[in-house]
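User: Could you walk me through two proteins back to back? I'd like the raw sequence and the structure tokens for each, with a short line separating them so I can tell where one ends and the next begins.

Assistant: Of course. Protein one, sequence then structure:
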Amino acid sequence: MSLENYDFDGFVINLYVDEQGDWLAHFQEMPNISAFGDSPQEALEELKVTWEMVKEDYEEKQQEIPTSIHKKQLSKFIK
């Protein structure tokens, strides 16, 4: 499985399987942003949709979209 097809803006994604065999994907830095699926790919696809909805909500409220700590650290070196 490759994460190349997913753009999570530099956030670290945790992927787990629960006791029932369902997969959970969530942002390590924001665990309240999560999604479930029957497979790892399905959980990631659902998380992708969820993340887009979260960003839209921030934009509608004219709030700054959270930035990954990893992306912030890299931006110090890229000018």
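----
Protein two, same layout:
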Amino acid sequence: MKKLILLVAITLFAFNVNAQDDSSGNALSEGSWVIEVNTGSWATGSTAFSLASEDGNTMWSAGAEAGYFVKENLAIKAGLGYQDFGEDFSAFSYKIGAKYYIAGDFPVGVDYTGVSYKDADENPSYVGLQGGYAWFVADNVSIEPTLRYNLSMNSDFYDDAFQFVIGFAIHL
């Protein structure tokens, strides 16, 4: 709980820090690229980094996303991820979607995530909606605290999920 409170405090601090110039101008222009990694949950078909352990079983995920700005502030993105649930059970995830930066500082996105479980007959998928804040710590590097909602397309696997994630993006 203390870590959560500290994370919220840091996020609120980030919202109150304002640079004197808008350093996000070139980073979000048409024709540029973004490479992004996120923290997240292994439970929702993740392209994020996560680590959890319960009853001696360690679960982890790793992945990344990349996008191309087809218009200023609008990127089309794709991502890949791998999850290991321990005890010879794993999954591969893929994500496609779009991300738009409102006023260059507030990214909102929509995407589709599919999951392929090892040796499974049926696999879950999600439609994700997200919104956050892009704090540009350099002209081409941003930290993006984000609220995300994953709508399950197959409730036989998982229910909908609400997440708080932190993204780290390099804009090229």
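The longest strand covers residues 57-71.

Let me know if you want the two compared in more detail.
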